[in-house]
Specification:
The complex is a heterodimer.
Chain A: E1 4-9, H1 13-24, E2 30-36, H2 57-60, E3 73-77, E4 81-85, E5 90-93, E6 98-100, E7 103-106, E8 110-112, E9 125-127, H3 131-141, E10 146-150, H4 154-165, E11 169-173, H5 186-198, E12 201-204, E13 209-217, E14 222-228, E15 233-236, E16 238-241, E17 245-247, H6 250-254, E18 265-267, E19 278-280, E20 285-287, E21 290-291, H7 295-314, E22 331-335, E23 338-344, E24 354-360, E25 365-371, E26 378-384, H8 390-398, E27 433-435, E28 440-441, H9 442-450, H10 456-463, H11 473-486, H12 503-512, H13 518-525, H14 534-546, H15 553-556, H16 561-565, E29 568-569, E30 575-577, H17 588-601, E31 604-607, E32 613-618, H18 623-632, E33 645-650, H19 664-675, E34 684-689, E35 703-708, E36 711-716, E37 728-734, H20 736-753, H21 760-765, H22 770-778, H23 786-798, H24 803-809, H25 811-814, E38 832-835, E39 838-841, H26 844-861
Parallel strand pairs in A: 1-2, 1-7, 2-3, 7-19, 9-16, 10-11, 10-16, 11-12, 18-20, 33-34, 34-35
Antiparallel strand pairs in A: 4-5, 5-6, 8-17, 13-14, 14-15, 20-21, 22-23, 23-26, 24-25, 25-26, 27-28, 29-30, 30-32, 31-32, 35-36, 36-37, 38-39
Chain B: E1 9-14, E2 22-28, E3 31-38, E4 45-50, E5 65-69, E6 72-76, E7 83-85, E8 101-102, E9 104-107, E10 110-114
Antiparallel strand pairs in B: 1-10, 2-3, 3-4, 4-8, 5-6, 6-7, 9-10
The chains are: A alpha/beta, B mainly beta.
The complex binds siroheme (SRM), flavin-adenine dinucleotide, iron/sulfur cluster and FE2/S2 (inorganic) cluster.
Chain lengths: 862, 115
């Protein structure tokens, strides 16, 4: 087999993406050596500032666990390449070692430009590019009070945010007359400045720094004094230079490869340098005289280079056609919480272009459109303060879409709050780029649908669209759906590969066939062993129909971890415990009992958004002990773990409140106790308010009840959450008994007919005939189902038992609540730190620090 | 080097202690091993994989749901739901990630893992 050795210089964002793309091609006989000068493997430089907002270096990593450990790849960190010998095809390292290559890839990025001001090397002066830079800044920042950022561009403002996050009094000094001179125009710059000053950052524009000298002192007036050309001066304890970047092209210079006028390694549209065995990608490359300081064009270069290597080095069929064709540098950012976007020809540099702008200095919003001379095409745009039109405007520029009659409405606020004319997926040409992070066009998404992708997950997998920042997912979904309906495809509602049925159909099969186990159901109506999608769905159906104990031996293996352990799993593998506090009403003794349990087991305690108390941080083996104490104190499971009834919130109602019409607390208690434990396609929430002031927020619930002068009003199919929906009035002026009857019917009908994980609002939207149909079924009983639905509900209600109690009373079930089957004790990977007087899970960095401390302590002891 | 050392069969628990189609976590030395029992009776099979979930960083895989995706037998992580091949440890969603696996057997009604 032919061997090929590829050496990649630089393990930054683009160099790493290159290796990922290369590995994905599975080329035979490939050996990859990656040289990285930094001490860490590739990390997300774009989100570097998250480090100051509380993130850790670990969270920024771009490297999937085990990636560089695989066969055929070697990653060398702290390894700087210093020379390339093109004749012998060897790279020399700073250590003196040489490494041979067949193909060499330069992905060396940029270095921050520091203006040649005397004093710039003083201690306490920094640049902002690597995690090491940030760590040095953080250490120095801890003893500083004031900080200055030199440079008011995009990165400068990010650095300013970092100084703010460290609690410093922050200044930005900019040479140009406005902030973000490259991206925005004067008007936009003014709004941006006002917004940033409002956040407490002092902005100094039009300032030329000539010298940095000693100030009054660290933490006093300032360690440094910056002298400006206009005679002014500014004192600060630390200075961060962010005055632009320069490509790192030293290796190319030594190897006599052509470089661009403003630096950078010259590449052709296959990303090859003048030496065709050497590629350059990312910020160090210059293409047609252009340097790109953004990551997306770098990713595109990585893809093109890999494609070329696969074609020329491996004769891989279907490769070799990719060309780098430049990249759009439109950007949308949130800088210090301020939305800023610039698209295309933002400055109106095109001859005869026309400007249409809207600015509101009171609301601090600035928007500008750059139109073609004929007024029919959008050439560019600037948005400051608000940027939700970014997606639409960008598509219009990129795809040269004809503008509507009055383009100003694209940016004017609409008087009636109605949505602006958006851009339907239909209007886009096939070439339109839908995902800019991964350069995926509308045509590629449509092709993926034709090849069988029928969910957004499948689209992500085969095209990569939507898999980075996620911003394009709504548009990608629209494109997918439009193509599916064009092809006459219906969205497949099969539960999963194991059952060719919808949840509703499975429910009927279970009921009609009196099926009581998963094995029987899959044996008769499905295939295979099942999976994590159908197993919990069937478990829920079996529970809704027969109310069998969810932990019976034949059902245990069907339950999601939450249902299996009757508690909610958290990110560190511990669980939270939520006892039922019906209606939010709790007697002082019981409140104390919860507090005592929490104190005894050291649990984090929080009042939930659902009027009850959550206890976090329990390990599996502790759960039965905790429940035992809670059950002894008179509590039951709150079913926070199940797709089941959660809480019925209540307001205090007529008992105490001067406006209350009826006793909302008693009704909430009655409802919660009636339906507790009821398993459903998704969770169910409810609330009861004592009058129309609606303090219990019943109209945001799956079913909500509001008292009136004449009885109860029943609202259905609302929710909060991801897509809030107001509930709608199903029936009014009901007495207690009728209210419960209607709720019985409503819930059972939902349980019978909804899809897996479909909340009532979505179910209602998909119900043909909508609310009127629902009224027909529940109130007018047009289907004649009423009695049947009520009977099914009473069967479930009658067989309720507290799951916690059953678990602790059953020795066989209890045995399962062990962290280790062959040892006592808990998981040592679970570690907490104290914050505000309680525990919280330790972050990865904190755990590592602890492990080191333990080793050191161990060494000290020996 | 201990390269010459023979793996040793560690006794874990009685087979009955692992309910069909569920997993348990065993501690072998300093390592946490997730042991799964797929199916029941004669057709039943055992698998042993690392308990550490590389995506969440938590030790939880023994608590995942078992099943199949196409031809592959898999366990789903209870935290972010990635699937891992029970036989090879490979992650279905991300072929670059693989879990450690160990030989496991039932002998005389006991479950044993070679490590
Ligand atoms: C604990 C709590 C937050 C808090 O500290 O207050 C919480 C925590 C969780 N919520 Fe929530 N939600 C909590 C109140 C809410 C509320 C407010 C309310 O109920 O009044 C809402 C909006 C109202 C609604 O649901 O309509 C809410 C909307 C969601 C959603 C979005 C649902 C939707 O249809 O859009 C999810 C995701 C889901 O269920 O798929 C969710 C999911 C979750 C999960 C289960 C996510 C998970 O799988 O880890 C969280 C774990 C719960 C736990 O105990 O560990 N949580 N969640 C609240 C528990 C209330 C309780 O006592 O049971
Ligand atoms: C704070 C900040 C915010 C940013 N925000 C955005 C944003 O919002 N959107 C956006 O698109 N872009 C943003 N960028 C730019 C983005 O990070 C870069 O475009 C991207 O990192 C370029 O990737 P690269 O691989 O070319 O260079 P880099 O990621 O810089 O990687 C180059 C690597 O090569 C190493 N190296 C250099 N020379 C050698 C050598 N001789 N031997 C060995 N190793 C060497 C370097 O140490 C470095 O690790 C931001 C950058 C910063 C600093
Ligand atoms: S909803 Fe009505 S009864 Fe209930 S607390 Fe508010 S005002 Fe009082
Ligand atoms: S645009 Fe970022 S993932 Fe598609």
């Amino acid at each position: 087999m032919k061997k090929m050795k590829i050496v990649v210089v630089g393990n930054g964002m683009v160099g790493h993406r290159f290796v990922e793309e290369l590995v994905a091609k599975q080329l035979p006989g490939l050996e990859i050596v990656v040289l990285g000068e930094e001490s860490r493997p590739a990390y997300d430089r774009v989100h570097l500032s998250a480090f100051f907002a509380g993130g850790s270096a670990q969270e920024l990593s771009l490297v999937k666990p085990g990636f560089y450990e695989r066969e055929g790849i070697e990653l060398r960190l702290g390894a700087k390449a210093v020379a390339v010998d093109r004749q012998r095809r060897k790279v020399k390292l700073a250590s003196g070692e040489t490494i041979g290559y067949d193909k060499l890839v330069l992905a060396t990025g940029s270095y921050p430009f520091v203006p040649p001001v005397p004093g710039r090397d003083r201690e306490g002066c920094f640049v902002y590019r690597t995690i090491d830079d940030l760590e040095a800044m953080a250490a120095w920042g801890a003893k500083s009070k004031t900080g200055v950022v030199v440079g008011g561009g995009l990165l400068g403002l990010e650095a300013a945010k970092a100084l703010k996050d460290m609690g410093l009094q922050t200044h930005v000094v900019e040479f140009a007359p406005r902030l973000m001179a490259v991206q925005v125009d004067d008007g936009g710059g003014r709004v941006l400045r006002a917004k940033i000053e409002a956040l407490g950052v002092a902005v100094h524009t039009g300032k030329n720094t000539v010298e940095i000298v000693d100030g009054a002192g660290l933490g006093v007036g300032g360690r440094h004094a910056m002298k400006f050309l206009d005679g002014g001066q500014l004192e600060a304890d630390m200075i961060v230079f962010s005055a632009g970047i320069r490509p790192r092209d030293e290796l190319a210079r030594n190897a006599a490869l052509p470089r661009g006028e403003r630096g950078g390694v010259v590449i052709d549209d296959r990303c090859r340098t003048a030496d065709h065995d050497i590629y350059a990608i990312g910020e160090c490359a210059v293409w047609e005289g252009r340097l790109f300081g953004l990551v997306a064009p770098g990713y595109e270069m990585a893809r093109v280079a890999v494609d070329d290597i696969a074609a020329t080095g491996f004769d891989r069929a279907g490769c070799g056609e990719s060309r780098f064709g430049g990249a759009d540098t439109s950007t949308k950012l949130k800088l210090m919480g301020v939305d800023v976007a610039s698209i295309g020809d933002a400055h109106g540099a095109t001859p005869d272009s026309r400007i249409c702008q809207y600015s509101d200095e009171r609301r601090q919003v600035y928007k500008k459109l750059v139109l073609s001379a004929c007024g029919r095409r959008l050439l560019g745009a600037v948005l400051v303060g608000e940027a939700e039109e970014y997606g639409t405007l960008l598509q219009m520029v990129l795809n040269r879409i004809e503008l509507p009659e009055s383009p100003e409405f694209l940016i004017l606020p609409s008087a009636d709050g109605a949505a602006r004319p958006g851009l339907g997926a239909e209007a886009l040409p096939d070439a339109a780029q839908v995902c800019s992070c991964n350069n995926v066009s509308k045509g590629q998404i449509r092709a993926a649908v034709r090849d069988g992708a029928a969910s957004i997950g499948a689209i992500k997998k085969c095209t990569r669209a939507g898999s980075s920042c996620g911003g394009c997912v709504p548009l990608a979904t629209q494109v997918m759906k439009a193509e599916m309906s064009r092809l006459g495809m219906t969205v497949n509602n099969h539960v999963c590969e194991h059952f060719p049925f919808s949840r509703q159909e499975l429910y009927h099969l279970v009921r009609v066939g009196k099926i009581r186990t998963f094995d029987e159901l899959i044996g008769r109506h499905g295939r295979g062993l099942g999976c994590d999608v159908c197993k919990p769905a069937v478990a829920s159906i079996l529970a809704s129909c027969w109310n069998a104990f969810v932990l019976e031996k034949d059902k245990a293996g069907l339950q999601d971890s939450n249902d299996y352990f009757l508690a909610n799993i958290q990110k560190d593998g511990t669980y939270s415990v939520v006892p039922r506090i019906a209606g939010g009403e709790i007697a002082p003794d019981k409140l104390i009992a919860i507090g005592e349990v929490a104190r005894k087991y050291g649990l984090y305690t929080k009042i939930t958004g659902g009027q009850r108390i959550d206890l976090f941080g329990a390990q599996v083996h502790q759960l039965p002990l905790i429940w035992q104490e809670l059950v002894d104190a008179g509590f039951e499971s709150g079913h926070a773990y199940g797709k089941a009834l959660r809480t019925v919130k209540s307001c205090v109602g007529s008992t105490w409140c001067r406006y209350g019409m009826l006793d909302s607390v008693s009704m909430a208690l009655a409802i919660e106790h009636r339906y507790k434990g009821l398993r459903a396609p998704h969770k169910l929430k409810s609330a009861v308010s004592g009058c129309t002031r609606e303090c219990a927020e019943a109209q945001s619930k799956d079913f909500g009840v509001i008292a009136t002068e004449n009885g109860w009003n029943l609202y259905v199919c609302g929710n909060g959450g991801m897509k809030p929906r107001h509930a709608e009035l199903l029936a009014g002026d009901l007495d207690d008994e009728t209210l419960i009857r209607y709720i019985d019917r409503f819930l059972m009908f939902y349980i019978r007919t909804a899809d897996r994980l479909q909340r009532t609002s979505v179910w209602r939207d998909n119900l043909e005939g909508g609310l009127d149909y629902l009224k027909d079924v529940v109130v007018h009983d047009r289907l004649g189902l009423g009695a049947e639905l009520e009977a099914e509900m009473s069967q479930v209600v009658g067989s309720y038992a507290c799951e916690w109690k059953r678990a602790i009373e059953d020795p066989e079930t209890l045995r399962r609540f062990r962290t280790f089957v062959n040892a006592d004790g808990g998981d040592e990977n679970v570690a907490f730190v104290r914050e505000r007087g309680q525990i919280r899970p330790a972050r990865a960095a904190e755990k590592r620090a602890r492990a080191i401390d333990a080793v050191l302590a161990g060494e000290a002891a020996t | 080097m201990d390269g010459a050392m023979q793996p040793h069969w560690h006794d874990i628990c009685a087979l009955d202690e692992i309910w069909p189609n569920t997993g348990v976590c065993a501690r072998i030395g300093g390592v946490q091993v997730a042991v799964f029992r797929l199916g029941d009776g004669a057709g039943g099979r055992l698998f042993a994989l690392q308990n550490h979930d590389p995506f969440s960083g938590a030790n939880v895989l023994s608590r995942g749901l078992l099943g199949n995706l196409g031809e592959r037998l898999v366990v789903a992580s209870p935290i972010y739901k990635q699937h891992f091949d029970l036989a090879t440890g490979e992650c279905v969603e991300d072929a670059g990630v693989a879990l450690r696996t160990w030989p496991v057997r039932a002998a005389g009604g006991r479950v044993q893992v070679a490590a």
